[in-house]
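hey m, so remember when u said the tokens were messed up on ur end? i reran from scratch. heres the input so u can diff it against urs
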Amino acid sequence: MIRAYELMVIFDRDVEEGDRNPLIERATAAIEAGSGEVVSTDDWGLRQFAYEINHKHEGHYMVLEIVTESAGLDDVDRMLRLADEIVRHKIVRLPDSEAERRGLLGGTVPADAG
């Protein structure tokens, strides 16, 4: 069954943009290989952590909205867990109502902000 997911990736603050993009592209390729689709990628930029992680206080956040089957995310999870440039990552399944509100599952089209 097709579901909507949100993938948050926190890169080490010292990782340059040129080094972040290939990892995101590899994750996207792995998702697409598992018959999924990355609907959007949102770069949140440098943010301060709520608590210290690996002696760091800041990280670069990126959020991807994904539509796929859950089996297609195992390889992505493993790849991100092994990447030294990534401090943390989290894959969360969106509730169907939220996915439809965002227009990810073919429900309603999201309203324009503003």
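this time it looks ok to me. The first helix runs from residue 17 to 33. if urs says something different then somethings off w ur setup not the seq
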